[in-house]
Each structure stands twice: as structure tokens, then as C-alpha cells.
From TrEMBL:
Gene Ontology biological-process annotations: methylation
Name of the protein: Methyltransferase domain-containing protein
Transferase is among the record's keywords: yes
Entry keyword set: Methyltransferase, Transferase
Single GO term (MF): methyltransferase activity
Species of origin: [Mycobacterium] crassicus
Gene3D superfamilies associated with the record: Vaccinia Virus protein VP39
Length: 277
């Protein structure tokens, strides 16, 4: 199982209903603001922005009623629950390598009438499903934790039905070669102190990786500017925590992410892949 300091803190804080546990109670990802200038810096605003980020992925993945859908890296199940509340006649599967997260997801999820929800413990790079099993696959801000982005894309392509779609969100260096320089590797080490295991930097572009897997890249959207209010909110939130361990763990990596994103060196991209029929 990958080393994820921020999830370890979340797991420790959830039983006490502490502030940190409430921050990422349902969703565990960045927020999306169509107009970043209206962000007000409150917890409620950030939680709403995380739900909007899910909607960006739903649109990218062309999520609709009557689908079989796999959410890889499902966390505490918030994305699955949001789909369940919005759509009907759905067969939804959440997958995660961490049994602690899955136990919470299962305990807190009740499918709407006509929908089905299941939870699977497995490695995203070795999906335990037959070929052509799903209409849609989502990977919301988690692929950087996987051992290999390219292996995951190959596995997602395998389990997608012909004509199916995959939507992925990821932090991507502005230039792929920069992601393989010594300075970037040093920065990754500092980010990992907060956000944990980061997979290998891909040697190929997403278009090339998708093509090798048999997927066609249909859309590639950089939404970095729409995520920027995340950073001042998180830094202020972490600095206000009573726990010195939380402050020490979370502020270092978040500062580096803030700096890279504000300078435009780190993009936040949403990719849509199509498996030809």
C-alpha cells in the first residue's frame, strides 16, 4: 500500500470529528471555481468547489444514466455518492488499494433505488475485472499515486467496453522534460512529505500513453487557474490546526504545490479518452 501521510492524518482525525477530518470528509481533492475571484475562503465554499471538480470529471467522462462505472482511487466514496444522487439505473464500483478507506466508503454509502454500488480492494495497475466490463472509468486526482500511469491507462482500456470513456485528472509539469530533471525530483520529495507516494514521472505524453493502450485522446483541458483558490485556503486551514503534527506534515508539501501552480510550472489537467467501438 502506498505511503500517504495526509490520509493517515485523516484516518486518525475522523473518529473524533476533528476539523481536519471534516475538511476531506467526503471528497479528497482540489476544488474547482468557474470564476476563481468569487472564492470566499470558507470551508463551505471549498467543499462546494470539490463537488464542482467532480462535475468537471463527470462531464469529461460523459457520465449519464444507465451506465456501469468504475471510480478508481475512490477514497471515502464521495464521488460515487455524488453520481448515485444524480443518476439512475447505475452500476457503480469504487476501487481502492487501502481497505481503511473502503470500509468508510461502504459504511457511509446507501445506493439510491435502482442503482447498485460495490467496493473493491485492488491495485489500479492490476484491475480485477474482465475485459469490456465498464461503460465509464474515472480517476479523480489519484493517478499520481499509482505505480505507473501508463500501466493504469492500459488496464483502464482493457476493462472499458468498446465505445467507452475514461476521464483522468492529474498534476502535470508544464514541460514533460522538466518532470525528469534533478530539481523536479527534489521538489517531488518535499511534496511527498505531505501527500505521499508519487508514481514515476511518465516518459511519454498522455496522448502517446493512451495511444499505446488503444485509447484516443479526445480532450485535454488545463484548468490550473480554476483550482488556484485551493492553495490559500489549504495553507490558512493547515496553519490554524492545533495539532503540530498536522501543521508539520501538511504545510511543507502544500507550499511547494502553491509555488509551482502559481508560477504555472505545474498544470492541473483533465483528460478524456475514448475506446473506439
Amino acid at each position: 500500500m502506498p505511503d500517504l501521510p495526509y490520509f493517515d492524518l485523516l484516518m486518525a482525525d475522523r473518529p473524533n470529528r476533528g476539523e481536519f477530518g471534516q475538511l476531506w470528509e467526503d471528497q479528497v481533492h482540489w476544488g474547482y471555481w468557474e470564476n476563481p475571484e468569487v472564492a470566499d475562503g470558507t470551508l463551505a465554499d471549498y467543499i462546494a468547489a470539490m463537488e464542482r471538480m467532480n462535475c468537471v470529471l463527470f462531464e469529461a467522462g460523459k457520465v449519464a444514466d444507465g451506465q456501469t462505472l468504475l471510480d478508481v482511487g475512490c477514497g471515502f466514496g464521495g464521488t460515487i455518492r455524488q453520481i448515485d444522487a444524480r443518476h439512475s439505473d447505475m452500476n457503480l464500483t469504487g476501487l481502492n488499494i487501502d481497505p481503511r478507506q473502503l470500509a468508510i466508503a461502504e459504511a457511509e454509502s446507501r445506493p439510491a433505488v435502482g442503482n447498485e454500488i460495490s467496493w473493491v480492494e485492488a491495485d489500479a495497475c492490476a484491475l480485477p475485472f474482465e475485459d469490456n466490463s465498464f461503460d465509464r472509468v474515472l480517476a479523480v486526482e489519484c493517478i499520481f499515486h499509482f505505480p505507473s500511469r501508463e500501466r493504469f491507462l492500459a488496464e483502464a482500456a482493457r476493462v472499458l467496453k468498446p465505445g467507452g470513456y475514461l476521464a483522468v485528472s492529474d498534476f502535470v509539469p508544464v514541460m514533460m522534460f522538466f518532470g525528469r530533471t534533478p530539481i523536479w525530483m527534489a521538489i517531488r520529495t518535499r511534496v511527498a512529505k505531505s501527500y505521499g507516494t508519487l508514481g514515476k514521472v511518465p516518459l511519454r505524453s498522455y496522448r502517446a500513453m493512451g495511444s499505446r493502450a488503444g485509447l484516443r485522446l479526445e480532450a485535454n483541458r488545463n484548468i490550473r487557474k480554476h483550482t488556484l483558490p485551493t492553495y490559500p485556503f489549504l495553507l490558512k486551514f493547515f496553519r490554524a490546526q492545533d495539532s503540530a503534527d498536522t501543521r508539520k506534515t501538511m504545510i511543507v508539501g502544500t507550499r511547494w504545490m502553491t509555488w509551482l501552480s502559481k508560477l504555472g510550472l505545474l498544470q492541473y489537467r483533465v483528460y478524456t479518452f475514448h475506446k473506439p467501438a
